[in-house]
Amino acid sequence: MTFVVGENCINCKHTDCVEVCPVDCFYEGPNLLVIHPDECIDCALCEPECPVNAIFSEDELPDDQQEFLELNRELSEKWPNITEMKEPLPDAPEWDGVANKREKLIREWE
After folding, report:
1. pLDDT tens digit string along 11-34?
2. Half-sphere exposure of 84 (CA within 13 A, CB side)
3. Domains along the chain?
């Protein structure tokens, strides 16, 4: 089993979760973090650290976010590993809880 970063992380990108991960399984994109499912050890330390409730256990991933399981796998193969806490995106508070942010996902670094 793995943990999955969901839609609410888009345009927020808090990294509190990264600080507590014992296996460094987080990867950073331009406006989203993802978890590599093969590296995650299901320790559950990251989930309560997320200030926007964007991390789910695979078996608790909401039905409308099931695509994020594969998205985490795909993007963790492309993006660089992140192991230290950084500042969230500047307008993160404005994006917390905004629905339908999938179209805002930026897949490539500029």
Report:
1. 999 999 999 999 999 999 999 999
2. 1
3. 1-39+67-82 (3.30.70.20)
